[in-house]
Amino acid sequence: KGTNEDVMKINNLIACLNLRMAKYPQDSRFPSDERKNELLNEATKHFNIASQISSHDAISWVGKGNAWYLHLLRNDPNMAMNAFTNATNLASNNIPALFGQARVYYHRKDYRAALKIYQQIMQADPSLTEPDPRVGIGLCYNKLNNFDQAIAAFDRAIELNPNNISANILLATMELDISKQWQQINEEERLTNFATAMRRSNKVLEFNPNYS
């Protein structure tokens, strides 16, 4: 019989495996909604067992938060936020928990709060590029109609990691939108932005043909 710590780690591992299967496709097919719910419920069960053994285990709280976050359309997002907050109470700069909080705020359309969390993540770990908080920062600025800063955030993410697919797609989308604003910009700018967007889109397809 293992120690409590061993049991906690095993339950966290089982939960993480179930969570991963619920999030990612298997054999090129996404799990059905019914199967996804089964996997998320199983993950939550094992995270609960782990957190009952130790309420100071941040992994369990972050895991439960992620499981509940994937249930957001059905459940109260406060459940996910509470779990992420429990993790940050144990360690204020727990990066996975902060990402979780930012995603919930963004889902609630509280873009200023989400932006603040993404900026906290970047300050805590400026070298972090996978996942890159700059993408979240750019998304928030875009929703707040601060397009120059959104573009700057995506540009910086691409500068640090040219293969950042999300940043390239988002920036290409913004460039394409700008090219359509024929009343606000001259023809040369419009064509330049359109051409840049197309080049960036082709670059994304080189990274990952599945985006076609």
TrEMBL record:
Asked if Electron transport is a keyword of the record, the answer is: no
Q: Where are the TPR repeats?
A: 95-128, 131-164
An example Gene Ontology cellular component term from the record? Cdc73/Paf1 complex
Q: Name one GO biological process term.
A: regulation of DNA-templated transcription
Gene Ontology MF terms: RNA polymerase II complex binding
Q: What is this protein called?
A: 1235_t:CDS:1
Listed A to Z, the keywords are: Repeat, TPR repeat
